[in-house]
């Protein structure tokens, strides 16, 4: 796919959590291609440096490595400070980090449940709190984006913590959007379907499983990280200036009740 021609984020600073690979990395690339200075977060500095090395350079200055575990309060505060100090401000926060720990629900452990909720839900609230504090105390506007999932809507058996966390972030988006709408702060989310990223290594590299996954998707194929990044840049841009509190599903039709694609009910 050709690089975008537009420069919608020239002069803007963007922090992306969980940007060492997958959708977060694709988003970092997409924002930088459009002129943004990007702070990439993840837990491993070497991986983040490798991502930064791949990003196009921008006028505003070097992209930033902001290492930290976003499920931990101290790390969130440090990552936020690093991003603000090094970039001199923040216009867009993308809460993208996410994990899954599958098991039959009768066997779910408290450790697994807490781990999933900490990354997928609590970190969204902690990161949002930090950026909202910065914007409000400096009378600034900005945009928060949350990477949710089709499983905000579609139940996912054996992924109870994941489903619960994604359902909850949908309400975090709507609540924050309403609370801060009058201050010009927009809060939205994207809901990816099945996307080719390391999170899905189990089927991405197995031709048979890839075919099976594709057969469940109305558009007949999984999505690419870049296609989620396109939705994130749109929602963060001026083109979405009147959109807040919304969830944009980017899923090839998965949330359309795929089983009804061929009539079986009448
Ligand atoms: P991925 O596993 O490839 O990448 C996840 C990223 O989050 C990695 O960079 C990882 O290091 C980071 N991360 C995990 N825990 C972290 C923590 N505590 N602190 C900081 N960073 C942390 O996954 P992906 O497919 O790119 O998923 C990104 C987001 O998209 C997740 O929130 C996921 O739930 C969501 N999503 C993905 C899909 C899909 O099919 N890939 C579908 C729906 C939703």
From TrEMBL:
Keyword Zinc-finger part of the UniProt annotation: no
Highest rank taxon of the organism: Bacteria
Keyword Oxidoreductase: yes
UniProt-listed InterPro entries: NAD(P)-bd_dom_sf, Sc_DH/Rdtase_CS, SDR_fam
UniProtKB keywords: Oxidoreductase
Species name: Neoasaia chiangmaiensis
Name the record gives this protein: Sugar dehydrogenase
Similarity comment: Belongs to the short-chain dehydrogenases/reductases (SDR) family.
Molecular function in Gene Ontology: oxidoreductase activity
